[in-house]
Amino acid sequence: MLCVYVTSHCASCALTLQRIEQLRSLWPTCPILVIDVGAPAASIPPAIIGTPTITWNDQILWLGTPSWADCKAWVARMTAFDKHGSLREVDIFRDLTPAEIEALGQRAPMREIGAGTQIYAPDQPTEVLFILKSGRVRLYHLSVDGKALTTAILEAGTIFGEMALLGQELYGSYAEALTPCVLCLMSREDVQTLLLSDPRIAARIAEFLGRRLIDAERRLSDFAFKRLPERLAALLLEHASDRRAWLGRSPHLEVRYTHSELAEMTGTYRETVTKILNEFQQSQLIRLHRGRIVVLDPAGLQQISAGSA
Length: 309
Hints:
Layout (H helix, E strand, L loop, with lengths): L1 E5 L4 H16 L5 E5 L16 E4 L2 E5 L4 H15 L15 H10 L2 E4 L4 E3 L7 E7 L1 E7 L5 E8 L3 E4 L11 E4 L3 E6 L1 H9 L2 H27 L2 H12 L1 E2 L1 H4 L5 E3 L3 H8 L3 H13 L3 E4 L2 E4 L2 H8 L4
Parallel strand pairs: 1-2
Antiparallel strand pairs: 1-3, 3-4, 5-12, 6-11, 7-10, 7-12, 8-9, 8-11, 13-14, 14-16, 15-16
Helix pairs in contact: 1-2, 6-10, 8-9
């Protein structure tokens, strides 16, 4: 999803919107969402500190108005990526040929949603499998008093949903889009016809579900045996990503979650997470910025995560 953050009465923003319309002429199927940061109901990520800003799948692509040459070069790269609906980036489809993926993409309905959209709730049960083509989704539980516990953060290329046929159940979880997302929706019949009928895809699904079970067991073990600083260090390492390709900076690892989101993922309070992060910063393990955390010493965090520091 290409998100364009603008403000009203901004000359640079107006020029950026013109450029985006030109970009759309080159790539008509590109999912584009224009967001007025001044709108009362606008959901603005903490990393957006000025306009115009353009992001792609929650990563900053351009700060300011891109040149037409930059737009053309980017579209040339991305259309090659998106030729088959970006489904080839989904792990369970990696054994398929481009022609097979294209045929699959034509039969699977697509849905674009904005950040903050509730995708699934326990009181609205429906048997559907979601394939996350772009964006980021969180799964969470709510306690009786309304406290949220994030159980998983799903990145592009994964599957989730209620599908007993695949052993996929959300077990009372809510699913919410953290960023603008593009989803493919599959019914039980779609799954049987398009996925399980192909032994290559069926094998990848079994492999995927096995990894998810291992991850769930590891998280449960962490909650049972690790202290909070150890869990938080492990979480930072798990979700750190290399921002070099998009931000044009020297290689570094970043975690793009707020303190509140990290608190919901570790089962504690935001104030407690902030205190521990400040201690990590004082130890020069990380550097805190608005909306992002730069990992300075992965080895040091690994030692804390392992309980050896």
